[in-house]
Specification:
The protein is of the alpha/beta class and 235 residues long. The protein folds into 2 domains: 160 residues, Rossmann fold, CATH 3.40.50.150; 47 residues. The protein contains 9 helices and 7 strands. It has a 7-stranded mixed β-sheet, sandwiched between helices. Helix 4 runs parallel beside helix 5 and helix 8 packs antiparallel against helix 9. The longest helix is centred in the C-terminal third of the chain and has 23 residues. It is elongated. GO terms for molecular function: tRNA (adenine(22)-N1)-methyltransferase activity. This is tRNA (Adenine22-N1)-methyltransferase. One of its GO terms (biological process) is methylation.
Amino acid sequence: MNTEKLSQRLEAVANYIPKDARLADIGSDHAYLPCYAIKKEMAVFAIAGEVVEGPYQSAKRQVELEGLTDQIVVRKGNGLEVVEPGEVDCITIAGMGGTLIASILEEGKSKLGSVQRLILQPNISAISIRLWLLDHKWELISEEILEEDGKIYEILVAEAGDPHKSYKELHKELLLGPLLLKNNSAIFKKKWQLELKNWQRILMQLEKAVESEETTQKRLELNEKIQMVEEALNQ
């Protein structure tokens, strides 16, 4: 992977960047995504944010190597600390857990006033992001699911608006994704078939465990999720 050819996952993220965006890529690693977006004329300005020293230095070197220091600023800081209010209109956060992405958005929500689009790619727990979007009046306008190198990834794209347009059966749609559920692709089915097997294995272990309030609650939660997923897969 380099600034000319991204991974399939990051290229899918880049495809949702609006034309002439002012972009902030949080957790930018080598700054491949901002460099790609500038070189492909998707974005006119970008911030590459990194909290860890090593990746921060790698991002700086990459931007300098590409000769893009006039259009890409590399900043070290935690989450949206690297962004000034009003500075960007599009934010990408890719390759982290959904809970961490949601916490980054929550802690940096004062920076989102000028932001028109969020492009988020959680490795796990996309439900955490959907809950945050719903609570803060961001509407999912697109969801994508893809497989690369044996791993399945989801991409969530949101804009400020009325989120209730996207969530009719809240619990099921928050878990599975309202737009992914509607599309019901082969990769979507594969992901949830794998999850089903995992939950059923855990359920069998819980059946053998000492009865307690905690194990009873866990069984109820798993059975509810299993039922929702089975219904979705059988649609």
